[in-house]
Design goal:
Blueprint: H1 2-41, E1 45-50, E2 55-58, H2 60-65, H3 70-73, H4 84-100, E3 104-110, E4 113-123, E5 129-138, H5 140-162, E6 166-170, E7 176-179, H6 183-187, H7 191-194, H8 205-221, E8 225-231, E9 234-245, E10 248-258, H9 260-282, E11 287-290, E12 296-299, H10 301-307, H11 311-314, H12 325-339, E13 346-353, E14 359-370, E15 376-385, H13 387-420, H14 422-438, H15 444-475, E16 483-487, H16 488-498, H17 500-505, E17 509-513, E18 519-523, H18 524-540, E19 547-555, E20 558-565, H19 572-576, H20 598-609, E21 613-618, E22 624-631
Helix pairs in contact: 14-15, 15-20, 16-18, 18-20
Length: 632
């Protein structure tokens, strides 16, 4: 019976032990499952290695690094996945872990990623190290972030050391906590003596008080402010703003710019503008402003007075409207150069036309005014009225021309006296000497020839003296001018009659075609002198048996008188200097007749007194035609 009772109890104990074993196994399995799930879901790479580096187990994170599954990596060597350059070092590290039974950690690089790892020994039940657990995670972002922070700190430090502006950071108590290095020069003390001090310890009391008030206002109102400050006669502009951390203003930051040059420049500019306004409104120079299309924007009162236009009228005009046409193209070309910035200033002397069509000479100076950004604002034109100077200059030029002409006339006059007047006298004296010494030995025919030569010489001398006298009277302005109505035919015929002897001696044929009804208003003596000198020249330079034609016609209210000959004519060079005092045209006639050129000069003077003209048409050996035009 006893034995029967013990058998069920033994079985019960055995069953309970089995249940406990199953429960323990189940709990262990559940624990291992949770651990495995924890390892597989970890974002860090994990694996278990034996002493040879063989992977006994790994999670998905590790296998995904290499594009494999955990099953594929199990049984492979971990060193096959590491950079070759690091294999020896990592193997040695694994050996040290097994030998020392102490964990190790380090860094490596896989696929250009920075990896931080730790290796922990795993002892068995007897305490022997049979495996190690490797835990690794991607440290790239953290490492890069740290490097970036260090770089940023270095950049910021270098910026503070070399900043051209003054940069500052202050704490809530308005003490300096970080400053740019240039504060050392501003405050005259090293940085270590500046940091931690308040404003009253660094700046004059009045300025420090202003700074503190501004700083507290920035922190209180959490707004950016701009203030202007003066220290040691230098001007500064400061921007201040709060540094908000966890929604609280923890620091005050800002930067200061030295604006001394700008302030002085602004002051100079204001003074310059005031001076310009004064010159513009009260000055003596005409000043105008033009837009890019050369239209007037504004003019001062002197400009209006000079050109006779009101400002309201000029605003509807461009500079072309008051510029003489001869200057416009040159002005446009140089204004374009100004616009293209190829020159900074355009200066010129030019003529302007006033509202009353009067000419004003001006020395103009044109420049461009730009704004602070370099944008075109307007042309600034300043004009110096040089009309009186130009008139005086023209008078001087005219006087110089008159002096040149007078000198030429003087030289001509002395030349005639020294040479041309002496020649007839020499001839005259020579003939009288022959008569005085050889009269009784001369035949009658010889005496007759001498008498004829004396007469001709006397006539030439008389005409020369007559021309000299009349010319000198004209030059001295004492020659009377008495115009009246003259019958041209009669005056020409009377002049021909006075020259009949010289015409007859050269057997020259004269034809005259002057209608009897042609009348001119002229000084009879002067017009007679003109015709006589032109006829005298025609006879002088026409060979024997030549022809002289005199004719007159009325054209367009003027009378045209022509005296043409068949003489030796003239080349172009002689024609150009025929009425010029500087010309040397005193060639002898065809029979050696005296020629001074004075007669033609006298003709020109008398014709100009009549407001008429004279011209010549001639070719060598084809004769000459002198044409006179006189108003009726």
């Amino acid at each position: 019976m006893g034995k029967t009772k013990e058998q069920p109890e033994a079985k019960m104990n055995e069953l309970q032990e089995m249940r406990k074993l199953v429960s323990d196994l189940s709990a262990k399995l559940e624990k291992e499952t949770r651990a495995r799930a924890l390892i597989d879901t970890s974002s860090n790479a994990q694996c278990i290695l034996d002493k040879h580096g063989i992977i006994c187990q790994c999670n998905k994170t590790l296998s995904q690094y290499f594009g494999l599954s955990p099953e594929q990596m199990s049984g492979t060597c971990i060193f096959d996945y590491l950079p070759e350059a690091e294999t020896a070092e990592r193997k040695q590290g694994l050996v040290e872990v097994f030998q020392s039974a102490s964990p190790v950690s380090g860094d490596t690089s896989i696929f250009n990623r920075s990896v931080k790892y730790s290796v922990h020994p795993l002892p068995d039940k007897t305490g022997e190290i049979t495996h190690v657990a490797v835990h690794a995670y991607d440290n790239t972002v953290h490492k890069n972030t740290g490097r970036q922070l260090r770089d940023n700190e270095e950049i910021f430090t270098r910026f503070l050391e070399n900043s051209p502006i003054y940069v500052f950071f202050k704490d809530e108590a308005i003490r300096a906590v970080k400053l740019s290095k240039n504060y050392e020069k501003m405050l005259g003390m090293p940085m270590q003596e500046i940091i931690g001090k308040n404003m009253h310890e660094l700046f004059p009391s009045e300025l420090a008080e202003q700074m503190v008030n501004d700083d507290l206002r920035v922190l209180r109102e959490r707004k950016t402010v701009t203030v202007r400050e003066v220290l040691n006669d230098r001007h500064y502009e400061t921007i201040k703003f709060p540094v908000i951390i966890d929604d609280e203003p923890k620091f005050l930051a800002g930067y200061t710019i030295d604006t001394t040059k700008q302030v002085h420049a602004e002051k100079t500019l204001r003074e310059s503008e005031e001076r310009f306004k004064k010159v513009y409104s009260e000055g003596t120079l005409p000043i105008a402003m033009l837009n890019g299309n050369f239209r007037f924007l504004s003019v001062n009162q002197v400009f209006q007075d000079t050109f006779g236009y009101k400002e309201s009228e000029l605003r509807k005009m461009t500079f072309r409207d008051i510029t003489h046409p001869e200057h416009i193209d040159h002005d446009i070309e140089n204004l374009q150069l100004l616009l293209q910035k190829k020159t900074d200033l355009y200066q010129t002397e030019k003529r302007y036309i006033t509202k009353n069509n009067e000419i004003v000479w001006g020395k103009a100076q044109v420049s461009i005014v730009y704004d602070s950004s370099g944008k075109f604002l307007y042309f600034l034109v300043m004009i110096n009225d040089i009309t009186s100077y130009k008139l005086a200059e023209q008078q001087i030029i005219q006087k110089n021309l008159e002096l040149v002409k007078l000198n030429a006339e003087k030289d001509k006059f002395f030349s005639i006296i020294a040479h041309d007047l002496r020649s007839p006298f020499n001839t005259f004296l020579g003939l009288t000497e022959i008569m005085a010494e050889d009269l009784y030995s001369l035949r009658l025919e010889e005496i007759q020839q001498i008498a004829t030569d004396l007469k001709n010489s006397a006539n030439n001398l008389y005409h020369l003296l007559e021309n000299l006298l009349e010319w000198s009277m004209v030059k001295r302005g004492i020659k009377p001018f008495n115009p009246k109505e003259i019958v041209l035919n009669k005056l020409a015929a009377d002049t021909l009659a006075s020259m009949s002897e010289s015409i007859r001696m050269k057997s020259i044929r004269i034809t005259m075609h002057i209608p009897a009804n042609i009348r001119v208003t002229a000084d009879e003596h002067m017009l007679g002198t003109i015709i006589r000198n032109l006829l005298s020249n025609a006879v002088k330079f026409t060979p024997k048996n030549g022809n002289i034609d005199i004719k007159a016609v009325v054209k367009n209210g003027t009378t045209e008188l022509t005296i043409a000959d068949s003489g030796i004519g003239m080349d172009e060079k002689m024609k150009k200097t025929l009425f010029d005092l500087t010309g040397s045209n005193n060639r002898p006639g065809t029979e050696g007749e005296l020629s001074t050129g004075l007669g033609l000069l006298l003709c020109k003077e008398f014709i100009e007194i009549h407001n008429g003209t004279i011209r010549v048409e001639s070719e060598p050996e084809k004769g000459s035609s002198f044409i006179i035009e006189l108003n009726r």
